[in-house]
Amino acid sequence: MxxxxxxxxxxxxxxxxxxxxxxxxxxxDPVGDFLPSYTGPLSPSLDVTSFTVNYDSAAxxxxxxxxxxxxxxxxxxxxxxxxxxxxxxxxxxxxxGEPNVRFNQAIVIQPSGAANIGSxxxxxxxxxxxxxxxxxxxxxxxxxxxxFLPQDYGFNLWPRSGSGQNAQIADFAPQNATLAAGxxxxxxxxxxxxxxxxxxxxxxxxxxxxxxxxx
Length: 215
Hints:
The chain is of the alpha+beta class. It folds into two domains: 1-20 and 184-208; 23-183, no CATH class. 18% of the residues lie in helices and 27% in strands. The strands form two sheets. The chain has a five-stranded antiparallel beta sheet, with no helix packed on it. A five-stranded antiparallel beta sheet has the order 7-6-5-4-10, with no helix packed on it.
């Protein structure tokens, strides 16, 4: 029994060091893929190169992060993240070839770091901007479920050069779809494999060690 419990305990110890509560997914986006319908300036700061959604169920928070082809704020514009919490019935982009982008909440992030979800202003420090990257820490309480589990929420990022027309939307990430955080990061799986490997090694080693002779 002890031979079984020791490796199991070791596996749990290793696994506890990995972000087993963190679920994350990243979508890359090509450089220069401005929408054909876009009529604004072709600024690199409005060209998404990657978008990541991370959900931490232990802290009940989302960390949303993006990288752009140029420094944030180097040209007029801002960023919208549409969120589908289960009843994503808003789908206003069919006229620019993106009918499957659905949402029922919208997070608006300014280059200054100010941000809001609807009429709710995010707390100071929720948004971090560093060169061509930004991230936003969003409590689950501000995105209550309307049917989906949090790790199944859909997200889509679109930079805008202005707020008046769909022709001011420069890019979508992901393109004509939504990004969810329902798959653990590769690093999480790697840590799990390390944990099970360590447990197996410990078990084999205990079986092969010779018994100690009494003094």
